[in-house]
Structure formats: C-alpha cells, structure tokens
Amino acid sequence: MTAHQEDGAPAYEYRWALPSVLLGAAREGGRVRRSTRDWIVDTLMFLLACGLTFVSLLEIQDEPVPLQAIEQVVGALSCAAVWLRRRWPVGLAVVMMVLSSYLELPGGASIVALFTVAVHRPFKISGPLVLFSLITLAPYVWLRPQDGLERGWAAALGVALILTVLAWGIVVRARRQVIWSLRQQAEVAAEEARRSERERIAREMHDVLAHRISMLSLHAGALEFRPDAPAEEIARAAGAIRNNAHLALQDLREVIGVLRAVKPGEEGEEAEPVPERPQPTLADLPHLAEECRQAGMDVRLTLGVENAPEGLGRNLYRIVQEALTNARKHAGGAPVAVTVAGKRGMGVSVEVRNPLRVRHGLRIPGAGAGLIGLTERAELAGGRLEHGATPEGEFLVRAWLPWPVKTTREDA
Q1: What transmembrane ranges does the database entry give (predicted)?
Q2: Using 50, 70 and 90 to split pLDDT, how confident is the model at 330?
Q3: Tens of pLDDT, residues 25-50
Q4: Whole-number mean pLDDT of the chain?
Q5: Looking at the DSSP assignment, which residues form a beta bridge with residue 301?
Q6: What is the pLDDT of residue 5?
Q7: SS3 category, 20
C-alpha cells in the first residue's frame, strides 16, 4: 500500500510514514513527495487562502496607497507560501501570524497554516502556537479597527475563529489516528492469520512426514536384520521404501511451496502454483491400517463411524496416524487396536491401544512433539485428547471431537 506522504516520509514505508505524520515525529523541512490526494488538498488550501485574501481586499480600500501596495505584495506572497505548508508547517505559521498582527491580507494564509499545524503536529506544538496567535491578535485589533465593529467584538470574533480552526484540525488529526490504528490492527490480524496457517501446515507436515519416515525406517530395518529373506520380500520392502520416499518428497515439496509462496506483485515475482492433493478423511483409515500391516504391524481397526464431515474426518485420521507412528517407534511389533465410534450430535471418540513394549535395537528418534501437536489439534477442533499408560499395562491415546448436528461449511 502506498503511504500518504507528509513532511518527507519515504513513499515506500507506510508503517512508519503515517505515524510520523500523525504523531508529530516528522522532521521539519524534510523532502515532500505529494500523492494525487495531496496535490488536490494543497490546491484547495491554496484556493481557500486566495479566496480569503480576495475578500480582505475590501477592508483596505480606504487605507493609504503605500500601505495598500504593501498589503497586496505581502498577501500574494503569503498565498504562494501556502505550498510550503507541508515542508515547514510551524515556521510558515509563525511568519504568517507575525505578518497578520498588523497586515490584513496575510490572514487567509495564516488560517491555513494554523490548520496545517493542528492536523500534522501534536498539541504540545499546536497549543503554544495557538497561544502565540492569540497574542498577535491583540495588536491587530488595536491598530486596525474595523468599521462598525467595536474592538471587543472584533477580538471575540478573532478568538472564536482561531479556536474553531484549532478544533477542526484536532478532529481531523484524531480521525486520521483512528484510521491508522484500524489499519494497523488489520495488518496485525492478517499477520496472525498467516502465522496460524503456517503453524497448521507445520502440524500437518509433522504428522505426515513422521508417518512416512517411520515406515521407511521399519522397512529398512527389516532389510537390515533379514538379509537372507526371499527375493520377493526384499523386492516388496524395497518397493514400499521407494513409494514412501516418493510420497514424503511430494509432501515436503507441497509445504515448501506454500511457505515460500510470494505475495502477488512482490518484487515482480509470481508464486509457483503448488498442486494440493486431496486431504485424507475418515474413509482413508482402512487404507492407512493396511499400509501399516504391509510394513509388519499388527493393526486391528474397528471403524464405527460413517459419513463424517471432511474436517472432522481429517482430524481423526491425523490422530490415528500419529498414534500409529508412536506405536512403531516405541512398541515395534506389538499389536495395536484402533477403535473409532460416535455419531452426529454426540461426537466421535477414537482410542489407540498398544502394549507397553520398549523396542530393542535401532530406535526411531522423535522430537517428542507428536502427542503435543495432537493435543493442540484436538483442542483447536473443540475437543480433548489424553494419553498415557493404563493400569492394564497398555499405552492409550484417547481423543474426543465434537460432531454437531448442524454441519458448517468449514466442517464440510
């Protein structure tokens, strides 16, 4: 997004440019880069100053000719100086107030300069400047009396005009601060959404790659400890290793493609489209169990749920997948019982049980984050997950996920 430029803020730094304008941190006399909106606003301010100066010409018709000439020259220069209000707002306002303490025609430019300071500088700067303006009003009221208007009324009108301009500028400044704050909140929310999506992808990839790599390790271990196995078993194990390696690389390519995706228009690059494969659902659990059996696991699956929503089925699939991966790591060869039961409106529960058996020999290393990730996944889905050893000498992973009566689009 292009920044709204004031007081020399760089055009490409919206995050910092706008606060410097609103909070008064911009450097006086900095380089100005006007946007189209800035040019329109500056033109309107210039025309306003010219209009007020033209109206004030009626007030100096009875003045001496030399004074009228000075008024006209100073008035024209004051209108032209309005174009410097973004670069030297405070300095311009001080000069205009000093000139308008006696002269009539710089008054229009003085009002524009005071409004500019009220909008682009904090009250600690605009407040003393308004006080200085009220001080310079006294000699003008005393030395330049108005026909048909007493000095007291003239002073009151001048004070009212100055305070009105200050209040108007403060309101505009406050509105810009609110808009900037809302935009910052929107940026933070968008960044949080991107971070959450990356965390979701990381959880998915942990579950998927842990499963694939554990399968690779299991088949490779079988080949290592049984070099004299029949050629058919060796070929079958090698084929499983190749297939799981291919799937692991494909999964890894997908997540890297998502994480490296370039925003449209950023540095003139376009993100390479990354094809997404269909996400697993509850209907894929029998295939997962069969895949584990082919790797030598004794998996007993009891599936008592049908037609579950895709979101619910995907979460259940990932829970079972990670639980089976843990069983392969820590209780290799032990039978694993997987039970999925539930119905709409009551929720779905899944239990994965296996005997506590420490695997001897080569052990598949783990980061210890699998069960933590499953707990987070269940909680994010509105459910719960517990795990640990049971008195019967088994390791149990039990999860419950809600299945509302009315399915939302996100669940579907």
Answers
A1: 39-58, 92-118, 125-142, 154-174
A2: confident
A3: 445 555 667 788 888 888 898 898 88
A4: 77
A5: 338
A6: 41
A7: helix
Measured CA to CA in angstroms, residue 312 lies from 238, 308, 349, 399 at distances of 34, 7, 11, 12
Q: Which amino acid makes up residue 144?
A: R
Whole-Å CA distances, 407 to 287, 310, 313, 382, 404: 26, 10, 13, 14, 6
8 Å CB contact between 282 and 319: no
At 206, list the tokens.
């942990």
Domains in the chain (CATH in brackets) are 14-144 (no CATH), 280-412 (3.30.565.10)
Cα distance between residue 283 and residue 305, in whole Å: 9
The half-sphere exposure of 31 on its side-chain side, counting CA atoms within 13 A, is 3
> Hunting for tokens 């296996």 — which residue is that?
354
The first and second tokens of residue 313, run together, are 């089925």
Look at 278 and 381; give whichever has higher pLDDT.
Answer: 381
CA distances from 288 to 11, 22, 187, 372 (A): 55, 59, 41, 22
pLDDT at 338 over 90: yes
Tokens of 149: 């208007």
Cβ proximity of 120 and 89 under 8 Å: yes
Residue 397 pLDDT: 92
Using CA atoms, how far apart are residues 215 and 221, in angstroms rounded to an integer?
10
Q: Region 364-383: what's the mean pLDDT?
A: 73
Of residues 246 and 20, the one with the higher pLDDT is 246
Of all residues in the chain, what percent carry a pLDDT higher than 90?
8
Q: Which of 223, 256, 257, 259 is nearest to 239 (CA)?
A: 223
Nearest to 349 by CA among 402, 302, 310: 402
SS3 annotation, 54-100: HHHHHHHCCCCHHHHHHHHHHHHHHHHHHHHCCCCHHHHHHHHHHHC
Angle value at C-alpha 375, between 371 and 377, nearest 5 degrees: 110
Write out pLDDT tens, residues 109-168.
888 999 999 988 888 888 888 899 888 888 888 877 776 677 788 788 888 988 999 899
